[in-house]
Specification:
Blueprint: H1 4-13, H2 15-27, H3 34-53, H4 59-81, H5 86-111, H6 113-118, H7 123-142, E1 146-147, E2 156-158, H8 163-183, H9 190-210, H10 213-233, H11 239-259, H12 261-281, H13 286-290, H14 294-307, H15 311-316, H16 321-326, H17 336-362, H18 368-383, H19 390-403
Antiparallel strand pairs: 1-2
Helix pairs in contact: 1-7, 2-7, 3-5, 4-5, 4-17, 5-19, 7-8, 7-9, 8-9, 8-10, 8-18, 9-10, 17-18, 18-19
Length: 414
């Protein structure tokens, strides 16, 4: 019989597989909401288990309950003030469900941090990394799947649905796999190290195939940082061992780049062509180009938000349906904090910031989870799709949950 925490690990470790399967079904023209059903099961499991466990009276509990309460209150007020019908309410509820994932997951982990420490929580991220990599590379080898950008040969995303979400998944996977590879380099067998190295190369290849400028740049910078950290800041490994491993890794990477130069040139050429196209499309507007039109979306959304003159909607937000239905270019800014502000108002933004600041305080103890927390938070702030996407919200929630499993975390002292 599976223990409850094992069910949790299994349920959330397979989400890339579910998303790839969901994309495959949708690409085939079959309207089966696999992803929706899976997320409802996840939400139902989390809510039931959290309520069953009970709520300890801590600052984190107060912040979490406040966040959920404020979000629900904002949704109810919006429904009344904006006179939303049932379909609009259901649309807003769907988006709110995704938004709640990154809050419910870490609270579940917080309640069971002692049990989850024994269940090798980090293995979740290795399974996720493997799933993302195989989910992209297998369809690519078979010659099936979808391009990252419709109507263009630049980029490839297999059957994963959203470009930014998939990029976030590979960024997190590469970061965790690279860290785990160098962290465990002394305590693992050669076979395990080779497999981890191949997985990391698979992550980098995934970022290259996706063809997003952020993903490719991040993969290059991450590799350099990991190598520098291993060579110059790992004091417990002998100097000869470090340089031997370092030179071997650099040699392998150089060999792979040399052997794959034709593929890399074609991929980078497609990326350059796409960037040139958009730069010309934006009439040489560098700000608009660098922000992928987000600056324009923000101007439109801010004008509509402030121009309403309605204190209720400014305090409680416009929701999601109203923005999509009436705001035009401002329907989605794709910068998470602004989308929280416009959709849930001042109240929702304050509740969100309060919870995120609490998680940031846990990052005083440096770990891979604290690194990933800030990486995804910064990505969400400037490129969006972290807090409101089902895939990214799940991943971000697992990362926030990992903060509670660090030794000497603040919550252990409460």
């Amino acid at each position: 019989m599976f223990k409850e925490t094992q069910v949790f690990i299994l349920l959330f470790a397979v989400f890339p597989v579910i998303d790839a399967l969901n994309g495959f079904v949708l690409s085939a023209g079959i309207n089966i909401p696999i992803g929706v059903v899976y997320r409802l099961v996840c939400i139902g499991f989390l809510v039931f288990q959290i309520v069953r466990k009970g709520f300890p009276m801590t600052s984190y509990t107060i912040l979490s309950v406040t966040f959920v309460s404020c979000s629900i209150i904002s949704l109810l007020v919006q429904t009344i003030v904006l006179q939303n019908d049932l379909s609009a309410l259901l649309y807003d509820l769907t988006n709110m469900t995704k938004f709640f994932l990154w809050v419910l997951i870490p609270y579940y982990v917080y309640q069971r941090k002692n049990q989850l420490k024994k269940e090798s929580y980090e293995k979740i991220f290795l399974v996720i990394s493997i799933s993302f990599t195989l989910g992209l590379l297998i369809p690519y080898v078979l010659g099936i799947g979808n391009q990252t950008y419709a109507g263009s040969d630049a980029g490839y995303k297999a059957f994963f649905f959203a470009n930014n979400d998939t990029t976030i998944g590979f960024i997190a996977s590469a970061t965790f796999t690279g860290w785990y590879l160098f962290q465990q380099i002394k305590s693992t067998k050669l076979r395990t190290r080779v497999l981890l190295g191949l997985l990391y190369l698979g992550n980098l290849l995934g970022l290259l195939l996706l063809g997003t400028k952020t993903g490719i740049a991040y993969g290059a910078v991450l590799t350099i940082v990991l190598l520098l950290r291993f060579l110059f800041f790992r004091n417990r490994i002998r100097l000869g061992t470090k340089w031997g491993i370092g030179l071997a890794i650099i040699s392998i990477l150089t060999f792979i780049v040399f052997q794959s130069r034709a593929f890399i040139v074609v991929t980078m050429s497609g990326l350059v062509q796409r960037l040139t196209y958009f730069y010309n499309l934006y009439n040489d507007d560098l700000v608009r180009f660098l922000t992928s039109s987000r600056s324009e979306f923000l101007d439109v959304a801010f004008g509509l938000f402030m121009g309403s003159g309605n204190i209720m909607t400014q305090f409680f937000g416009y929701g999601f349906n109203q923005r999509v239905a009436t705001w035009g270019l401002g329907d989605l800014v794709e910068m998470d904090f602004f989308d929280v502000f416009f959709s849930l108002g001042v109240l929702g933004l304050l509740a969100t910031l309060g919870l995120l600041i609490f998680f940031a305080t846990l990052c005083k103890k440096r770990s891979i989870y604290s690194v990933l927390f800030f990486v995804l938070l910064l990505y969400g702030a400037f490129a969006g799709h972290v807090l409101f996407s089902a895939l990214s919200s799940t991943l971000f929630g697992l990362i926030c949950g990992g903060l509670f499993l660090q030794k000497e975390s603040l919550c252990e002292k409460e």
